[in-house]
Amino acid sequence: MHSGEPAPISDTLETDSLPRLLLVDDEPRLLSSLYELLQGRGYRLVTASSGSEALAQLSRQRFDLVLLDLRLPDIGGHDIMDFINEKGIDAHVIVMSGEVGIDAAIGALKRGAYDYLRKPYSREELLTTVANALQQRRLAADNERIATQLENSEKMYRYLVDSSPDIIYTLNHEGRFTFVNDRAYQLLGYTREELLGQHYSILVHEEDLERARYVFNERRVDERASRNVELRLKCRGGNGHDRTFNNTLMTISLNAIGMHVPDQEVKKLEFFGTYGVARDITDRKRAEEVISYQAYHDILTDLPNRILFKDRLGLAVIQAKRKQTELAVMFIDLDRFKLVNDTLGHVKGDELLQQAARRLKGCLRKGDTLARQGGDEFTIVLPELRDRDDARVIADKFLETLQEPFDLDGHEVHISASIGIAIYPSDGESIDELLRHADIAMYQVKALGKNGHSFYHTSMLDVSHQKIALEQALRRALEQDELEMYYQPQIDAITSRIVGAEALMRWNHPTRGLLSAGEFLPFAEENGLMLPISDWMIGALCRDMLQWKAVGGGNVRLSLNLSPQYLDRGDFFEKMRGALVRYGIAPGQIEVEITENICIRNPQYAIEQLNKLCQLGVSVAIDDFGTGYSSLSYLHRFPIHTVKIDQSFVKEIHEENGHYPVILAIISIARGLGLNLIAEGVETEEQARYLRSNGCLTMQGYLYYRPIPLQDFIGALRAQSAPNLRAVQA
Prior knowledge:
Elements: H1 9-15, E1 20-24, H2 28-38, E2 44-48, H3 51-60, E3 65-69, H4 77-86, E4 92-97, H5 102-110, E5 115-118, H6 123-163, E6 167-172, E7 177-180, H7 183-188, H8 192-195, H9 209-216, E8 226-233, E9 243-258, E10 266-280, H10 282-296, H11 306-323, E11 326-335, H12 337-344, H13 346-362, E12 369-374, E13 377-385, H14 388-403, E14 406-408, E15 411-413, E16 416-424, H15 431-447, E17 452-455, H16 460-479, E18 483-492, E19 498-509, E20 513-516, H17 517-526, H18 530-550, E21 557-561, H19 564-568, H20 572-583, E22 590-595, H21 596-601, H22 603-616, E23 619-625, H23 633-637, E24 642-645, H24 647-650, H25 661-673, E25 676-679, H26 685-693, E26 698-699, E27 708-709, H27 710-729
Parallel strand pairs: 1-2, 1-3, 3-4, 4-5, 16-17, 19-21, 21-22, 22-23, 23-24, 24-25, 25-26
Antiparallel strand pairs: 6-7, 6-10, 8-9, 9-10, 11-13, 11-16, 12-13, 14-15, 18-19, 18-26, 18-27, 19-20
């Protein structure tokens, strides 16, 4: 029999999705009849024969529909409906009552009853009322679900739109904002309320209004309806805060279909407004401006670079040709800059260039252009000269302003400049011609002692051609084996034996004869030939040393001078090691000589390179000690094995019993640090005896040997080893 008990678990699983109906009536016959009527029609039925039992079922489980008799013995139907309303129970109620009075029906309907059936009711009437009530519930549930989905969808849309990194907006046909997301406030400072209803022009920068008007007033609605435009939009806060946006715009149209023509549809496109997405490209534009600026300016001095200089010079030439006026091109090279750069380091060198650039710029007129060509070279164009004297006056100003000392963090530095001047049109009509002739005039100043200016003259071409010829001849010297290594022996002052030799380069010039290193190596340094020359030198020395060993020179140490450019090259160490392995030379027989200035040029890199050499077994000597700019701390930081006393100090020794404190100090330093000591430039017996008596026992100089070619050096080694051979034979 049907009862108020829950169905078995299996039944519950099968019928859980069916509508739940609670049947409440105190007459068992009517309740049973009602149950039989509704059974098998797709409902899950629960019965209650009293008001208290009905309340218990309503508290225990959910129902879609309650069929409720009003007249119950314990709790009335109206009270049960009050309970349903108070507890917020979501169930429709169909009241079934035998009362004929109107009050019962009114009371039920006031309490939210879906319908009121008077007993006795027909079978069809009950079934129809139940079906309608459940259908209404389903429709209400569907509507609620759709409303929730719409609400969630709108929230998601709002979230996505307001979280967009771009400003999203719509304009009506008048160009007034009808929608704008929150990004407008974040980027521009205007709230949504401030913008809605306002014309777009309140945001557009005045200079961009015409362009904005053109694109926003477009009425195309086909595939060309979408377009892009870059606009500057004003930010709240005023000047200097405008931002640039890329606006992607699309015309919005409404499709209106007119039905007034019989049997024919008339389709009309009507302009409705504009949908836009504004992307903030301020940072990108700034980056592009920086990149563009850097492409035409020198980063260190903030001056125009050679590209921009040539462009401005070209414009100045065109203008001078049109107006038939003169202009001047200057080429400036800072004298002694390389010395400062090498001794105080690149950072101080860069600071010096910045200060020099500011001073030069301060001497110019409005309309003149100062540019940095690179390194310590500057170029200047002076348009619209009245006469050559204008250029001379400015060149004198340059020299005067550069004569004042420069303060580089406590280091007082003095430099000067060599200035070459070429005049358009007499010294050339093209950009390249003017620059080349100004450059030639500048080198003429350098050749005459620097610190001055000179106007170009055709006679200077001969000097320039000589320079080119020298460079070509030096390149040929490498190809045709005109270079040769000479050796100056180093002597043990006690035994008078050769214990080492310094390698010195010579050039067997086809017309000028034998040239010393000082006559061509500085030129090689300036023209990028030092690296191939050094490569040649490493191979030549190794080949020569094989001949030393053959005559008993296996213990004689070779000292070779190392160019700073060669040390700076990344593959220097590998070149050296490869050559020693290839020729079978013991690394311990090699000593590399560096100057104090090389230690200051790039200290950390120099330390790394020299340490690698020391690990290989090559030793390091510091040449010209005491004449450079380094502090004594470098002797601790750098892997130095030998100190060479510069010949400028040795020259001062005139008496064997004199007092020469600098010499004594260097000897004391070397002895205290456990370093080897060599004196250079020893030319007299007095110098030799003074050095020997104070502890310097290795010397080189004209007193013993001048630099000699390989065969003479081999002869000296052979003569030295001859007595030993005779002693062995005896």
